[in-house]
Amino acid sequence: YSSTSGAVDESRCIICEMGKYSSEGASSCTDCWAGTYSDEGASTCISCQAGKYNPTSGESICIICEMGKYSSEGASSCISCPFGKYNPTNGESTCTSCAAGKYNSNNGRTACASCVAGTYSPSGATSCTLCVGGTYSDEDEASSCINYCSAGKYSTTLGATSPLACLSCPYGKYSITSDAMTCQFCPTGMYSNSSTNGDCIRC
After folding, report:
1. What is the H or E stretch that residue 198 is in?
2. 25-65 pLDDT tens trace
3. Which residues contact 164 (CB under 8 A, 6 or more apart)?
4. Dihedral sign, Cα of residue 167, residue 168, residue 172, residue 176
């Protein structure tokens, strides 16, 4: 740029310093806006790369987003990773969803917490869910409660961690499906007792 009137050659033109830019024929340099930067002698400003940011104008560098945060291109600030996601490294453009069996109930986390036995979660979860009656989970970080009470047994316990929560149906009742939460009365003309293993037998 040149602020001198009547200049006769290029020697009167001054190079814009870092953090500023000018177009051809300019009489002054302009600060780069937030989210951008420039090197010396720039004719335009460059957007900060994804994973970086610049909160002020007139800067020559962008700042790397810290762990637990992210940014898109040209950002003036970093955004905390939302619930159910995390970011373990600096300078990231996105956050990663918590794996199944884990969860995150806070913003800006660098890791996800594990679901304990008796609970489960799908990927990207913000909390763990208790195993419903008739099921149980005996391991941490379960993605589902895949263990069921066997036929002839039932359970009303939420968050069960072992098959000990499954109880035998009382005499005169039965369950023919796994994951049963109740037992049904044997139909007319049938019975069950300790010798029928939870099944109803015709009289």
Report:
1. none
2. 777 899 999 999 999 989 999 999 999 999 999 999 999 99
3. none
4. positive
Half-sphere exposure of 13 (CA within 13 A, CB side): 12
What is the predicted pLDDT for the residue at 34?
A: 96
Write out the E strands in 82-194.
85-86, 96-97, 102-103, 113-114, 119-120, 129-130, 135-136, 147-148, 153-154, 167-168, 173-174, 184-185, 190-191
CB 175 within 8 A of CB 153: yes
DSSP string covering 55-80: -SSS-SS-EEPPTTEE--TT-SS-EE
Distance from C-alpha of 147 to C-alpha of 175, rounded to nearest angstrom:
16
CB atoms inside a 10 Å sphere around CB 187: 10
Contact 33, 47 (CB under 8 A): no
Q: What percent of the chain has pLDDT over 90?
A: 66
- As a whole number of angstroms, the distance between CA 157 and CA 119 comes to 12
In this structure, the dihedral spanned by the alpha carbons of residues 55, 58, 61 and 64, taken in order and rounded to 10 degrees, is: 0
Q: Rounded to an integer, what distance in angstroms lies between the CA atom of residue 203 and that of residue 107?
A: 63
